[in-house]
Specification:
Length: 408
């Protein structure tokens, strides 16, 4: 297309049915060829951009579109532009910005960093207004590593979350998710609640903190903490199970993922007594955790079977992907502690949720808002889509799945 034959038309005004159709009809009447078009509507106010190839009919095109715009009650501006072919090898990324709050200063800082990296914002879409505000930016150009590094740094400075993902076909084609349990799917650590019943909570809390920060081997830390529970009545497991608190947004997340056809799994360095209950409660496909040894109604302070530790979590993610025929690139892992690191790095998208600094630095992206369903926004799913699906199908029942034995 020659640079001199392109005309950009910017239409603004109150949106109404048939508006775009009417303007496109006016273009058709004069034989103009539409080569690009994009529309944004905010609170019933429309901004519509149309790029057309004109030939020698610019005057007729302007007159026809201006006349139709007057009939439709909207305003139109014309600007001749250099219509270049898009650069085919330009790298594109989705930049997702989440905050509570997410102010103009933070948005200015992030978008400024994008420009400094030599990248351009091609499109902006709002994903949610509540419980957090979030936007998705489609960005082209710039050095990917620098872009990620600069935006992560700016996000920390602005106390918001920014995720950078390559814009590929697979972003919304994720098919399997594995979620850590303690301090991710659930609020708090179950083993600390058990320790409170056993009268050893301070000791267990200290060991837990060291393990989650990576300062103590998880397997060693787990055995030490379980040993402190020796003699605790097994009934305490039921009491703790009945009092566990789901992280806000957990039900919405799991319900929406099932509706989208995801295979869902939960994995825990905690205990099957809790994860089996959560699996039933949330209709999760698979669950994997440690089993406490119980004799004569009391905990022995030992575990039964293979240990679910940092390497085991990653191996289980791979096993689930293999058994369900899902490439690792189409998997998502979510966790908060050092024992989740291998799993997060092995997944196609590793998300650190309210995580320790070590984990945030190593994961693909991090979420610090206290809502687990914010993960859906990282997949490009909007709050409106979630609510519309719930409204249309309040009695949603997921399709039956072929049962697969879980490795425990």
């Amino acid at each position: 297309m020659d640079d001199a034959t392109a005309l950009l038309m910017t239409v603004t005004g109150r949106d109404r049915p048939g508006l775009t159709s009417g303007l496109c009809g006016a273009l058709a009447d004069v034989g103009a060829r539409i080569v690009d078009m994009e529309q944004v509507t905010i609170r019933d106010r429309l901004v519509l951009g149309i790029l057309v190839s004109l030939g020698d009919e610019e005057a007729r095109t302007r007159a026809a579109v201006r006349s139709r715009a007057e009939e439709l009650g909207v305003e139109v501006e014309f600007e001749p532009v250099a219509a270049r072919q898009p650069t085919r090898d330009a790298v594109r990324h989705y930049v997702t910005i989440l905050g509570q709050p997410l102010g103009a200063r933070a948005l200015s800082a992030v978008t400024g960093r994008i420009a400094e990296c030599g990248a351009n914002i091609d499109r902006i879409v709002r994903l949610s207004r509540y419980p957090i505000l979030s936007f998705e930016l489609l960005v082209s150009g710039g050095d990917p590593e620098r872009l990620r590094r600069e935006l992560v740094s700016e996000a920390a400075a602005q106390h918001i979350d920014v995720a950078v993902q390559r814009a590929t076909l697979y972003r919304r084609a994720k098919r399997l998710i594995v979620i850590d349990v303690d301090s991710t799917l659930l609020q708090g650590e179950v083993i600390e609640d058990l320790a409170a019943h056993a009268g050893c909570q301070p000791e267990v809390t200290e060991i837990t903190a060291l393990a989650m920060e990576g300062a103590l081997d998880f397997a060693e830390a787990l055995r030490k903490r379980v040993a402190l529970l020796e003699g605790l009545p097994a009934s305490a497991l039921d009491e703790v199970r009945d009092r566990v608190q789901l992280t806000p947004g957990a039900r919405t997340l799991t319900r929406t993922l099932r509706r989208l056809g995801f295979v869902t799994g939960i994995v825990s360095g905690g205990f099957t007594h809790i994860t089996d209950h959560l699996q039933r409660q949330l209709d999760i496909d698979h669950a994997h955790a440690n089993t406490l040894e119980i004799r004569d109604g009391f905990l022995t302070g030992r575990l039964v079977g293979p240990l679910v530790d940092r390497p085991a979590k990653a191996e289980w993610l791979e096993e689930l992907a293999r058994r369900n025929g899902v490439p690792l690139g189409q998997t998502v892992a979510v966790g908060d502690g050092a024992n989740d690191l291998d799993m997060l790095q092995r997944a196609g998208l590793g998300i650190a949720f309210n995580a320790k600094p070590l984990v945030r630095a190593a994961a693909d992206t991090a979420v610090s808002v206290p809502y687990l369903d914010a993960i859906l926004f990282l997949l490009g799913i909007t709050r409106e889509e979630i609510e519309a699906a719930d409204a249309e199908d309040p009695g949603f029942t997921p399709p039956p799945r072929i049962p697969l034995p879980d490795a425990r």
